[in-house]
Write a structure and sequence with these properties.
Blueprint: E1 2-5, H1 20-32, E2 38-41, H2 54-70, E3 75-78, H3 82-91, E4 95-98, H4 108-115, E5 119-122, H5 140-157, E6 165-168, H6 177-185, H7 187-191, E7 198-199, H8 205-208, H9 225-237, E8 242-243, H10 248-263
Parallel strand pairs: 1-2, 2-3, 3-4, 4-5, 5-6, 7-8
Helix pairs in contact: 1-2, 2-3, 3-4, 9-10
This protein binds pterin-6-yl-methyl-monophosphate.
Pfam family, one: Pterin_bind
Protein name: Dihydropteroate synthase
GO cellular component, one term: cytosol
């Protein structure tokens, strides 16, 4: 899944694709590079971010979704708002990705239930303005699994099709670096919840801290793609259904290399 943030302030690529024409061109580039799905969002969820109005969010995403869906792309709308999801689906999106898993807007579950589209429900403990204050866990893997399965149960009870529900542990959302690493290490337990799993580690701050001395500034987002490829390959190995990334070629190459290893023959010599 390739990311198209139509925002002025996303941590990873803020402002780069804010103009509709630039966002559409970027979406096309990601498709040409091998993305299967484009995730298009108009609200930054970086820690401390303020929310745009509904009208502003619609203004950002609708023209981009319309153009890319008209090209034949599989488009996923990244939104916490039922009204935006509804309009995005009419404009050609066919998947809804909600970082709040339906918690930010009571009407989201019924929009998804009524339209029958796949729904990505991420682990979430509150809006970005103060989410890092909620990064307290007894056992992060057990707590995230319990909260995600409670969410899945409530969504299914609200009419969301169980076989179209994708779960995401929410890397970087109300998580400290060591929480993210533990969740990656034990991702098989999220997979064991029985739903497809989406993993979005791409360019997140915990990756930018690798190799940086204690107290040093994290490396800039564009220098986190090798670590993104490594964590995405790990996620795929542990059974993730999808990985959400900004730089498609690096992660795709890493995934292809591991697939080539998996499919290699056992002979150590040719034809002997
Ligand atoms: N991360 C961001 C935005 N949307 N959606 C899902 N399902 N999972 C994520 O981890 C996720 C997301 C924040 O990253 P960005 O600002 O680079 O888009």
């Amino acid at each position: 899944m390739g990311v198209v943030n139509v925002t002025p302030d996303s941590f990873s690529d803020g402002g780069e694709w804010f103009e509709p024409a630039a966002a559409v061109a970027h979406g096309r580039e990601l498709l040409a590079q091998g993305a299967d799905v484009l995730d298009i969002g108009g609200e930054s969820t970086r820690p401390g971010a303020q929310r745009p109005s509904v009208e502003e969010e619609l203004r950002r995403v609708l023209p981009v979704i319309e153009a890319l869906a008209a090209d034949g792309a599989v488009v996923c709308v990244d939104t916490m708002r039922a009204a935006v999801a509804t309009r995005a689906l009419t404009a050609g999106a066919t998947i809804v990705n909600d970082v709040s898993g339906g918690l930010a807007d009571d009407a989201m579950a019924s929009v998804v239930a009524d339209t029958g589209v796949p729904f990505v429900a991420m682990h979430w403990r509150g809006h970005s303005a103060d989410m890092q204050s909620r990064a307290a866990y007894r056992d992060v893997v057990a707590d995230v699994c319990a909260e995600l399965s409670a969410r899945a149960r409530d969504l299914v009870a609200a009419g969301v099709a169980a076989d179209r529900l994708v779960l995401d542990p929410g890397f970087g959302f109300a998580k400290l670096a060591h929480h993210n690493w533990s969740l990656l290490r034990h991702l098989d337990r999220v997979v064991d919840l029985g739903h497809p799993v989406l993993v979005g580690t791409s360019r997140k701050t915990f990756l930018g801290r690798l190799g940086v001395p204690e107290g040093g500034a994290p490396r800039p987002p564009a220098e986190r793609d090798a670590a993104t490829a490594a964590t995405s390959v790990h996620a795929a190995r542990l059974g993730a259904w999808g990985v959400r990334v900004h730089h498609v070629p690096s992660t795709l190459d890493a995934l292809r290399a591991t697939a080539a290893i998996d499919h290699a023959g056992d002979q150590s010599t040719d034809g002997e």
